[in-house]
Amino acid sequence: MQAEQVTRLRVVIRGAVQGVGFRPFIYRLATEMGLTGWVINNAQGVFIEVEGDKPRVDAFLLRIEPEKPPHAVIQSLEASHLDAAGFTAFEIRHSEGAGDKTALVLPDLATCADCRREIFDPTNRRYRYPFTNCTNCGPRYSIIEALPYDRPNTSMRLFPMCPACQAEYDDPRDRRFHAQPNACPVCGPHLELWDADGATLAGHDDALRSAAGAIRQGRIVAVKGLGGFHLMADARNDDAVRLLRRRKRREEKPFALMVPWAHGPEASALRHVEALCHVSELEARLLRSAESPIVLLRRRADSPGPLSAAVAPPPNPYLGVMLPYTPLHHLLMAELGFPVVATSGNLSDEPICIDERKALERLAGIADLFLVHNRPIVRHVDDSVICVVAGREMMLRRARGYAPLPVGSSQKSEVSSQKSVVSSQTTDDRPQITDNRHIAADIQSPIANRINRQSDQSKIQNQCWPLGRT
Ligand SMILES: [Zn+2]
Ligand SMILES: [Zn+2]
């Protein structure tokens, strides 16, 4: 290689690029291509410098967009050529905290298939561990205290990693490389079951099993989840659901349901939902998406199923259904095997509870038991609510899974707001053409369409899903 062919490329990427495995992705790409340099998160986004011969550096730049991690959203990418600096290796440098905080924080992401497999695998060290996560899933927005998104800036800073977790965190080939909320039963948060006075009745897996037992017996359990508390009750038990309505002073509004994910063959994952509701392909995709919203589904008229009529009093044709979206919910719902009411833990007009001690006070007289954990929720996040009308999505409440990304830059419509700026003659115009195709496709997509149909939206809301909490 001749000396003049070696070049250094500086790349600045803005968007939702923190907490999605972006630095590990850049590390793997650069090392695979034999490039040296570094990558760093700072408050504005991800900064990269790579050095090598020009064709490979150019090829590196072209591979970033098409090969980026699934949940990354690139809003802008700027690249400029510099003189070679003589790097000898590629490294992930420590994040810089200074500067304007403009990097987009990612939403909380529903448990991925790999993590789901692990928590139900008796041979795995995370078997039945309710706080399992990886670079592709888990809490983000609800645990971030400051940018950049690094463990010391999240509520996971309270849990120093054990050697096994640290080894995963440090290994660029591992799914948990730089996964900020990484945890296991040895080092991470744990569950407790409290009575209404805050006395501990059980801990760890016993707490989960006892909470499931209480729900099965018709009791109302407040469950601390990702962005707040749910009140849960057996949705088949008329007495339990009516009691919850009375205690919550909620006469008519429909309650949201959490329905078990049928483990086993992926094709039958929605078996429990399909027993209650008609589910189109798009609705199935939404239910199982990383955003995991509540989806309003048409209930089956032919078979009312086992639900209490008090869940969504007639003539409401819809049920608001969500699948478990954290390992805690997966484990709890697998234990139960039937649908539960999962309504937000608050009186009808109060904000959602996020702190377990406050929950004890605020939910006194409503919840019989409290399934809590010691990972603080930094900010509350409600469940999102979506309805599909005429084959298109309509967002009724945009919260968990979508917030805080700006409207129009959800993970699926990520390319719509992207612009590529290459400030030197390093690439031809192929990436631009590719981008334009993506943008055109996105304009026709259901996600882009869902924003401007206020009248349909308010009609559905008024008729089927009155405004307010679920
Ligand atoms: Zn995962
Ligand atoms: Zn650990």
What does this structure look like?
This protein has 470 residues and is an alpha/beta fold. It folds into three domains: 90 residues, Alpha-Beta Plaits (2-Layer Sandwich); 58 residues, no CATH class; 183 residues, Alpha-Beta Complex (DHBP synthase), CATH 3.90.870. The chain has 13 helices and 17 strands. It has an eleven-stranded mixed β-sheet, with helices on both faces. A six-stranded mixed β-sheet has the order 5-2-3-1-4-17. Helix 5 crosses helix 9. The radius of gyration is 24 Å and the shape is elongated.
Itemize the secondary structure elements and their pairings.
Elements (H helix, E strand, L loop, with lengths): L5 E11 L5 H11 L3 E7 L2 E9 H14 L5 E10 L7 E3 L20 H7 L43 H8 L20 E5 L4 E4 H13 L4 E4 L4 E6 L3 H11 L7 E3 L12 H4 L6 H7 L6 E5 L19 E5 L4 H10 L3 E5 L11 H7 L6 E5 L11 E5 L2 E6 L21 E4 L7 H14 L2 H4 L4 H11 L6
Helix pairs in contact: 5-9
The structure holds zinc ion (2 copies).
One zinc ion binds next to helix 4.
